[in-house]
Amino acid sequence: MQYGAIVVTFNRKQLLIESITALLNQTVPPAKIIIIDNHSTDGTKAELQTADILANPSVDYRYLTKNIGGAGGFARGMQIAAADPNLDWASMSDDDAIFEPDYFEKLIAYQQDHPNRQILTGSVYIEDGRLQADQRNRFTNWSTFQAQAVPEREYRGNFEFDQYTFCGVFMSVAVIKQVGVADAGYFIWWDDCEYAVRTAKLSRPVNVSAAKLIHKTALPSLDFKSKFVPDWRLYYGQRNRLITIKRWRANSLVSLGWLLGFYARLAIQLCGPFYRGYRKMVIRVYLEALRDASREREGLNPNFMPGQKF
């Protein structure tokens, strides 16, 4: 098996070096490492040159003329991988995913024993040792795409699930060719979840639990539920989820009922302490997301720009 590793990066040169080094040090290394640089301004390319990474013939570095978001970056990387006749499989990850040396060896070994499996993942941990279980979920409702994390006890073995993220997912290039690439218009968040919905028609993912990576994210998703974080990406997460529901819902009446209930609960929550200090921001996020999703208006919203503070 010849595989490529797609890595999307933006202004995190030190993490990127660590991520690429982990890929180069795999016991079964990728035939090609596709780096999509989303118009970094922190000297990423110079850092890669200093580390002699760009001199490696397996590295394909693409510097984009503008930041097209994580969704656009993955879409571009998928296009490159699908167009390469030498690649059979491809992985997707951001620059904060640090693979253990035998990550891909374990995935490939599993696939060789189960040749009908076309989508595999490994287990995601954060730096403090906690399992980031919400990276591997099962849908509880295919009309609203509500999901539950696979219980930690199931990580004692391998398991099937529904919703993966672009944090170490590994799939056959044939799947990409059949369903197309990620929706670049999502810009950020839910692009991987929407892609999981599309690929579910072809192959259910399997998590090979012994394959592990460390997710060096600044704010783990596990911690979002304990306190409100005024993040510009919240708009894109809500808008893109609603677009996904509109496109792929199993039952429109069920999704409509959920939508009405969701916004009713939000109205009640706004009266409580959770959103204190950010109520106007939250109202704007969820109303603009609803408006734009109803029109399937994608791309950047000038009211919620990368890095914007609230």
TrEMBL record:
It comes from the Bacteria. The keyword Chaperone does not apply. Gene3D superfamilies: Spore Coat Polysaccharide Biosynthesis Protein SpsA, Chain A (3.90.550.10). Pathway: Cell wall biogenesis; cell wall polysaccharide biosynthesis. Its EC number is 2.4.1.-. One of its GO terms (molecular function) is glycosyltransferase activity. The keyword Repressor does not apply. Keywords: Glycosyltransferase, Transferase. SUPFAM superfamilies: Nucleotide-diphospho-sugar transferases. It holds the Pfam family Glycos_transf_2. It is an enzyme of class 2 (transferase). Residues 6-167 form the Glycosyltransferase 2-like domain. Belongs to the glycosyltransferase 2 family. PANTHER family: GALACTOFURANOSYLTRANSFERASE GLFT2, RHAMNOSYLTRANSFERASE WBBL. This is Glycosyltransferase, family 2 (GT2). It comes from Lactiplantibacillus plantarum (strain ATCC BAA-793 / NCIMB 8826 / WCFS1). The gene is cps3B.
